[in-house]
Amino acid sequence: MSLGNASEELKWKEGRNMKKIVWLFGLLLFIVIGSACSDDRLKVVIDPGHGGIDAGATGVSGKYEKDFTLSLSKKVEQLLKKESDIKVLMTRSDDTFISQESRQRPKYANEVKADLFISIHGNTFSDSSVSGTETFYYHKNSQSFAEIMQKHVVEATGFRDRGAMERDLFVVKETEMPAALLEIGYLTNQEDEAKMWTDDFQNRVAASIVAGIKEYQESLERAEE
User: Fold this and answer.
1) 159 exposed, middle or buried (CB, 10 Å; 0-12, 13-18, 19+)?
2) Angle between helices 143-157 and 199-224 (to 10 degrees)
3) Does residue 40 surpass a pLDDT of 90?
4) What CA–CA distance (Å, rounded) separates 158 from 176?
5) pLDDT tens-digit profile of 180-207?
6) I want to staple 212 with a disulfide (CB 3.0 to 4.6 A). Which of 26, 37, 55, 149 is the partner?
């Protein structure tokens, strides 16, 4: 073989190899972009109640509901981030004020096309002897989700089971996906509140919220089979 022919063959092989590299790179890019565009994870919005100038309920100890809800919500967020098939989003991650008039909480959940919405609260009542855990929903398609969440959360709190009930609250009324508002316990009840501020209690409840989400997720998957 002449040097000229050898040189031509080398160029041809190099060109063929380059085409393979370009093709493989294009395939990899297609897979990456396709995966990003087809995120089929369950999208969950966690809504820590109140915030900023809206302190919510003031507990027996003088502590504010807004701080309790944010603390617990962050624990839920951290647990959900460990679930590969769940994407978690927060309506607030710090002491931010979100006005009720703006309806930003349900608007945000609708805009991001959430699959589930959970608003976390601490309860209050004029009678300090009132205690317990309860869950509110509005739309019929939220009832089973709310009942599952109530079951798990009340088991974690150990408080009186006050049930899952329909209630005309805008955060669960104006959301376009199954939504539940969790009243974890009464900050105006001395025994409830003392437990609610402990890390052990909040870690237990956070885990129960995740367990409730996963049970509901599994029920959806079974329904699709």
Assistant:
1) buried
2) 150
3) yes
4) 31
5) 999 999 999 999 999 999 999 999 999 9
6) 149
- Can you say whether residue 62 is alpha, beta or left, with left for phi > 0 and alpha for psi between -120 and 50 degrees? left
| Distance of alpha carbon 151 from alpha carbon 91, whole angstroms | 24
pLDDT over 60 (residue 2): no
From residue 114, give the alpha-carbon distance in Å to each of 152, 169, 202.
21, 18, 24
Please name the amino acid found at residue 145.
Answer: F
Q: Which residue pairs from 161-166 have beta carbons closer than 8 angstroms and sit at least 24 positions apart in sequence?
A: 161/132, 161/133, 162/132, 162/133, 162/134, 163/134, 163/135, 164/134, 164/135, 164/136, 164/137, 165/134, 165/135, 165/136, 165/137, 166/136, 166/137, 166/138
Element (H, E) at 48: strand 42-48
Distance CA 116, CA 139 (A): 13
Q: At residue 224, does pLDDT exceed 90?
A: no
Residue 165's identity, in one-letter code, is: M
- Give the tokens for residue 68: 């309790």
Beta bridge partners of 42: 86
pLDDT digits (tens, 9 = 90+) for 55-68: 999 999 999 999 99
* HSE (side-chain half, CA atoms, 13 Å) at 14: 6
